[in-house]
Amino acid sequence: MPFEGTADVMERRDYGSAVLLRFACAGLEEVRPGRFLHLFCGEERGRILRRPFSICGWNKAEKMVDVLVKGKGGGSRWLASRRVGDSVELMGPLGNGFRVEGGCTHLLVAGGLGLAPLRFLAFVLLDRGERVKLVWGMEWEGEYGDLPSDLAGKMDVEVALRRGTRGKGNGRDAVDLMSRCLDEEEWERVYVCGPRPMLRKAVEVLKEKPPGTCQVALEERMACGIGACRGCVVPSSKGDGTYLTVCTDGPVFDVGDLNWKDVGVGPGD
Amino acid sequence: MDLEIELCGIRLKNPVMVCSGTFGNGREFARWVDPRLLGGVITKAVTLRPCGGNAPPRLWEVPCGLLNSIGLENQGLERFLEEDLPWLSGLGVPVWVNVAGFDDREYVEVAREVSRSGMASALELNISCPNVERGGWSYLSRPHEAARLVERVRKATELPLFVKLSARVQDMEATARLLEKAGADGLSLVNTMPAMAVDVETGRPVLGNVTGGLSGPALHPVAVLAVWEAYRAVRLPIIGMGGIWSCRDMVEFIMVGARAVAVGTLNFRDPRASVRLVEELERFMVRKGYDSVAEMVGLTHRIVGLGTEAEKEGAGEAEWKKGPPGR
C-alpha cells in the first residue's frame, strides 16, 4: 500500500548543480529501483500538482529514501532548496520499477539526471554480486560535484562530458559510450534513463545492437500519479492508437513496448 | 443533523461527489479512499466505441490551475458495461454515468444501453468537453442543437438526465431554460474552461492537442457564478463543480444553489480529499448550527432577494424560505 503523508529531510548532499535529499519515511513499502515518489513542491506561484521524482537510494533498515533534484522549474527549485529538518508531502512509492534478474551482465546508461533511478538499481545489483557497469553522460565536469567519483568508488563507472571545461569535453554522450560497450562486450541486460532526445538516440543504436533485454525509464508530467487521469501517457507500440501511463504502466518499459516515432517532447526537453 | 440530500429522487448520504475524469472509474482511488463514503461517483466519460484520446502532452499546470487535453480516452461502452460499471454499482454508492459522443446518434445509443443495464443512478451528458473537435462547432455555441440532443437522449432513458455545461455559454440562464424545456432533469456546472498555453522557448503550444480545459482553483469563482445564474433561471437540481479546494468552496456552491457538489482536480493533489471534505462539511454544519444541507441550498439568493425587514415580515418566514421572489 503506497504511503501518503509528510516526511522529514534528514540529510542534504550538494552534488554540484544537483542535490541529494534523504527523507526519513517509515511508512514506505515495496521500495524498488525504477519506482518514484510524488512530491508536493510548495504553493508558491500557485503550484497545485505534485511532481514525480525517481527514488535514487533506499536504506531499508533505517527507512531512509533518497531523491536527486536539480532546480530547473519553480517546483524543483523549491524542493532543491529544502534543508535538514524541513518537511515534505510525499506519496509513494508509485510506478512499476525495473525488472531485475540475477546471473547476468548489466549495463546502466544514464543521461544527466537520468542517473537517479539507475543509482538505486546499481546498488541493488551490486548487493547481489552482479556484474554492473554504469555509463553516465553529462554536460560539464563538476556538474554533479563528487557524485561521479563517489559512484566510481563503488562500481565500474565511465563518464562522458558533452561539453566539459578547458577542452575536457569530448562531445560524446552516454549513448556513444553505450554503443562502444555493446561492441566490446556481451551485455545481457541494458537499462536506459535520460531526456527523450537521448532515449530516442539510444533506441536507434539498440536496433542495430540489440542486447538480451533493454528497459527504459521515462518521465512525464503527472496529475494523479496513480493511473486514473490518463494524463501522463506515451504511445504504445501495439499500433492501435492506445497509450500507456508513465505513472502506472511505467515508468519502466521494455524498449519494444513503445512507439518511439511518436514519443514526443518530454518535460524539460 | 445529517448530511443527506436528495436529487431527482436519488438519496445521497452526503452532497460530496467526484467529478468525471478525476477519479477514474473508482478502482485506482479505492486504494486510498472508500468510495462508499461519498455521496456519489461520476464516471469517466463513456463513448460508444473505444477512444484513444489525444496525443500527449496532455497536462500543463498553470498558476492555481491545470490544463488538460486527455480527449475522452476510454475503453468504450462494451467494456464499461462489462467491467467498470458493475464494479462501481456493486459498491452501492449512487453512480452518475458521464455520456459523451461524436454525434447525436452515439450519445443516444450510450444513454440507452447504460439505462438498460440498470446499474446507473443517473446520466451526466457531456456536451461541453473542450477537447474534442466536432465538425468545428460545439453544442455550447449552439444551444438549440444542445436542446435537440437532450430531447433525443430524453426519449432513450428514464434515468435522471443531468447536462454538464461549461461557463463558456453565451447566456447561462437562457441555456438552462432551453435545456429544462428539452427534458433535462438537472445540471452539472461547470466543465473545464477552454484554455491554452505556449512554451515561449520554442513557440509551440504545450499541449499536443493545442487547446485544453482549465480546472482547479482558478476556475472556482467562474463556477460559482454559473451556479448562481442557473439557480435563478430554473428549478433543476444543480451539482456544483469547479475548483473545490476546501470545505468553504463546497458550501459556497451550495449557498448559491447547488444541491450537491463534486471534487475534481483536488483529487490529484490529495487522493483522500473527497472523503476528507465530507468530514469537514459535517464539522462546518455543526459549528454553524445547520441541521440539513437543504437549509443551505440557495441561501445566498434568499439573503440577496430579501427586500427590507418589513417585506420579509409581510411575506412570512415560510414564504421567505421558499426562494427569491420572481422565480
Quick description:
With 269 residues, chain A is α/β, with parallel strands linked by helices.
Largest pleated sheet of chain B: 8 strands, parallel, barrel
Classify the secondary structure makeup of chain B into a structural class.
alpha/beta
Mean pLDDT of chain A: 96
* Low-confidence region ranges of chain A: none
Instruction: State the separation between the terminal residues of chain B, measured CA to CA.
Output: 29 Å
Between the first and last Cα atoms of chain A, what is the distance in angstroms? 33 Å
Tell me the strand percentage band of chain B.
15-25%
Strand content of chain A: 25-35%
Radius of gyration of chain A: 18 Å
Shape of chain B: globular
Question: What share of residues of chain B is helical?
Answer: 25-40%
Structure description:
By secondary structure, chain A is an alpha/beta fold. Chain A has helices spanning 74-80, 115-127, 147-152, 174-184, 196-208; strands at residues 3-15, 18-24, 36-40, 50-54, 57-59, 64-70, 87-94, 105-111, 131-138, 156-161, 189-193, 213-217, 233-235, 243-245, 252-254. In chain A, β11, α5 and β12 (213-217) form a beta-alpha-beta unit. Chain A starts with a strand and ends in a 15-residue tail after the last strand. In chain B, 35% of the residues lie in helices and 18% in strands. Chain B has eleven helices and 16 strands. In chain B, the strands form four sheets. Chain B has an eight-stranded parallel barrel with strand order 3-4-7-8-9-10-15-16, surrounded by six helices. In chain B, 55% of the residues are buried. The model of chain B is unreliable at 307-312, 314-320 and 323-327 (pLDDT under 50). The A-B interface holds A 1-2, 4, 40, 45-50, 91, 220-235, 240-243, 248, 262, 264-265 and B 21-24, 28-29, 31-32, 52-53, 55-66, 68, 70, 73, 204, 208, 216-218, 265, 267-272.
